[in-house]
Design goal:
about 500 residues; alpha+beta; ten-stranded mixed β-sheet; eight-stranded mixed β-sheet
Length: about 500
């Protein structure tokens, strides 16, 4: 992907569908539209997946806890999409065994019935049968599980992925189908003709230039910022989103040994607790805290970190403390508002809605990573009607994503023979930085260390120590000077300060 080429094409061509937003939702819409043969363009005000879409719990799952809410349709849809992703992106999505421990007699029948329904809903897309575990079998699966009071457990299966890497694969898939994607391009004004939305005025945030992009239909897929884009069309439009923050902490891999993840479907206050092996670390999450405004860089609150540490120590033998934390991060969920007051965010639906304004702005709101493809199909179906486009069925149910291989292997970034490690505590190498710049539109150190690579999440302090090397490599590739290098290192240090409890 060449950003300069993309920027040159944006104002020069008449687009069928223009997508505003480059997270999971927007990239999914762009892939669906481009794969149908529509002339498709996408703009993102930050980096691809910079906000919520790179801060998930890294799971492609049906949502066991949604069964408790009675949302069978959402679970069925998510399980079907989980199966499709495992087939269409095996280089990025893989099955993950989960254990639900039992400490009370009633948990075995209660969760057992629910997981049997979960397997049944998955149908042919099942990734493994649920089975009961004795206490001894469970401790074999997770040797660091807290044995005190343990009666046994349940083993079931879901999917795991790397969220921002999947986002980049979607961006590249869109480009493979002749689409255009551009990061650091902000929508500043909707263009209208005869009262109808006819395009977007944007600003290139790198050089400050403004230009217009014309399209037959504009899709607002801005995630947590969807209401803000809707207000460019109708300033008085009611807000449709209720934002909820999910915080995570990352611990060394020694806290969760074995190949299984751990799930407690219902903690003391009704939230879900995860402990998941991820890139050699232990990912602990998640919280569900209402927040009033969306933020590109949300910060975990002290009580969220305390909640996660307390539950990690409850379920695992090692007593996790703040000094064990390698990184902390948070994302903001764009949940569709409840129709009544007083509903807690953990009870709000993860379903999506497609809304068309009087001026023809198509907005997709709500949803979650697992169902991004179905969300995109529904959105493009509606956008095609609004834009008067020829009717074409979505081909994405069977569309292999960029980088697809016939076997489940990790996606490689190697393009050179420089296999030197960036840092002794990180699994990444110099050639991966070069690939991110040359082929994945990485424009700053944070793009590389936070999203193309996951260094900031795996070990925030190590990522800061690696930043000068990355800045130098990027400066050579992008033709930047020493001043740019220094500024990039300073900016990344400031960013990373929010990912450690004590820098």
């Amino acid at each position: 992907m060449d950003r300069l080429e993309m920027l040159q094409r944006l104002p020069a061509e008449q687009w069928d569908i223009l997508v505003v937003g480059g997270g999971a939702t927007g990239l999914g819409v762009a892939v669906d539209a481009a794969a149908r043969g529509y002339r498709t363009a996408l703009v993102e005000q930050g980096d691809f997946a910079e906000a919520t879409s790179s801060r998930s719990t890294k799971l492609i799952h049906g949502g066991v806890r949604y069964l408790q809410q009675g949302n069978i349709a959402l679970v069925r849809e998510a399980l079907l999409e989980r199966g499709r992703l495992l087939l269409n992106a095996p280089h990025l999505v893989h099955p993950m065994p989960f254990v639900i421990p039992h400490y009370h007699w009633w948990e075995r029948p209660w969760y057992g019935v629910g997981l049997e329904l979960y397997d049944w809903l998955a149908g042919d897309s099942s990734v493994g049968e649920t089975r009961h575990l004795t206490r001894e079998e469970l401790l074999e699966k997770i040797p660091t599980m807290q044995p005190r009071g343990l009666r046994g457990g349940l083993l079931y299966h879901d999917g795991q992925f790397d969220d921002s890497r999947l986002a980049i694969a979607l961006a590249r898939t869109c480009v493979d189908h002749e689409g255009v994607v551009a990061n650091y391009v902000r929508a500043t004004r909707l263009l209208k003709q005869d009262g109808r939305v006819a395009g977007v005025e944007v600003r290139d945030l790198e050089d400050g230039t403004d230009f217009e992009i014309r399209a037959k239909v504009v899709v607002n897929a801005a995630g947590i910022f969807s209401d803000e884009v809707r207000h460019l069309d109708e300033p008085s439009a009611p807000r449709l989103l209720q934002h909820s923050q999910g915080a995570h902490i990352v611990l060394p891999g020694s806290f969760l040994t074995g190949a299984c993840a751990l799930l407690s479907p219902r903690t003391d206050d009704g939230r879900v607790f995860f402990a998941i092996p991820w890139h050699g670390r232990t990912l602990i999450g998640t919280t569900d805290t209402p927040v009033t405004e969306p933020r590109m860089e949300p910060r975990p609150q002290a009580d969220e970190i305390a909640f996660l540490l307390a539950h990690a120590s409850r379920y695992l033998t090692a007593q996790a403390t703040e000094t064990d934390i390698l990184s902390v991060f948070a994302g903001v969920r764009p949940l569709v508002k409840a129709q009544r007051d007083g509903v807690v965010t953990s009870a709000l639906s993860r379903s999506h809605q497609v809304i068309v304004s009087r001026a023809g702005l198509v907005s997709i709101i709500g949803g979650k990573w697992t169902t991004y493809r179905q969300m995109a199909e529904d959105t493009v179906d509606q956008a095609a009607k609004v834009g008067g486009l020829r009717s074409v069925s979505s081909p994405t149910a069977d569309l292999k994503l960029h980088g697809w291989t016939s076997v489940q292997v990790s996606e490689g970034l190697s393009i050179s023979n420089n296999n030197e490690l960036l840092h002794e505590r990180l699994p990444y190498r110099v050639d991966e930085v070069l690939t991110a710049v040359r082929h994945e539109m990485a424009r700053c150190v944070a793009d590389v260390l936070s999203r193309r690579l996951r260094a900031l999440l795996l070990d925030a302090r190590a990522s800061v120590e690696a930043a000068p090397r990355v800045a130098a490599l990027m400066a050579a590739e992008l033709g930047r000077d020493a001043s740019w290098e220094r500024g990039q290192v300073e900016a990344f240090e400031k960013l990373a300060a929010g990912y450690v409890l004590r820098m």
